[in-house]
Amino acid sequence: MDCLAEAFANSSHDNDVYAFAEVRNPGLVEKCVRVEAGAIDDVSLVEAYASEIHPDFLFIGPEQPLASGVVDAMQRRGVPSVAPTKMAARIETSKSFCRRLLDRHASQYNPRYRHFLRADGLEEYASRLGEFVIKPDGLTGGKGVKVYGVDFASLADGLEYCIEVLSNDPNGVLIEERLDGEEFSLQSFCDGAHIAHSPPVQDHKRAFEGDSGPNTGGVGSYSCSDHSLPFLTPNLVREAAAVNELVYRAIAEELGETYRGILYGNFITTANRLKVIEYNARFGDPEMLNILPIMKTDFIDVCRAIMDGTLDQVNIEFERKSTVCKWIVPQGYPQNSIRGGDVDPASVTRSTATLKTYFGAVELEAGKYRLKGSRAIAFLGIGDTLAEAEKVAEAAAARVKGPVYHRRDIGTEPLVRRCVQHMQALTTPSQ
What we know:
six-stranded antiparallel sheet; 21 strands; four-stranded antiparallel sheet; 14 helices; Dna Ligase, domain 1; D-amino Acid Aminotransferase, Chain A, domain 1
């Protein structure tokens, strides 16, 4: 949200920025005329706020308001949104909808999977796959996916988690084959008739260094100045863009409505071909932080083109810069996060030309940054090379004083080299 507020505040257009967020973090307070805190998926609260401030348009960052129908409610009030409707957002809010849509339009990009509403057949299918991934059908804040051999060690443990999901999610659970490869994200701008793409980003969701530990919403990410990634070929980047275009059009074809907003494809490149991990109906976090600060095009111009259906008339450009994002998170994150701990504001480096500092789940209380239990402060290094960007981000992250930690390895040469070597090992024929 802080990064979005900055993109709007930096626009050449004369505008006032208002925010409705879960937390009144210092970044939003600094950049916005007014910040209202509340349940972001409560349609009535959002409507009441909109009736006070009379916005020109609404930009939705997180997934919960999409699922609750905030866009639909704003449309009824005559307020356009840079975000899809509740129905179109099912590409993210229902994993089974996403898989079925791909089955019908691009089955080659789906892993083997099955959707279960009951436990019948679970054990037989999971046994047949061997190594598998468990995904609750609905939203879990990036923390619900569990992987065989990483989050659980046996078939029995996996089945126990499946039963837990089935008891809590009426939409069921998906069992998918475990894919071996490297993941990346491609975020695209959609106006209902046209689509434009941003540079690919690699996000790191595991909490601890070496991509170990529990799944999170993402604790860091990086992008490269050549608008590719070290383990990708130009053909793979083009193919991912083509898949986003295919899915964007398939949503309109199946649902009978245009998709306006951001479409985020999370891909994995394997030994055999590109596969889809999931889709989001919004910017990724942290991947948004890698692309908006290097966007050369005025962000309000992009938003208006999305709403007007004129995206083909806007040349969306990005600087040829590398970026590295590192999130500062509370100790114990994500499972047993410290809430209420304090970070010394003097230890937080403020934004410069090569460093962007963004606030998340933190508020300024009694002269301290009070932790709210989730990702607290993001540091984005920007440089001509990945090494330069990583050095900037790490220097800022390492200065922070408080009950927090961060992944020091994100964007470093050893971690990136490991990704490259992983793909080389998968794609090199055995002798």
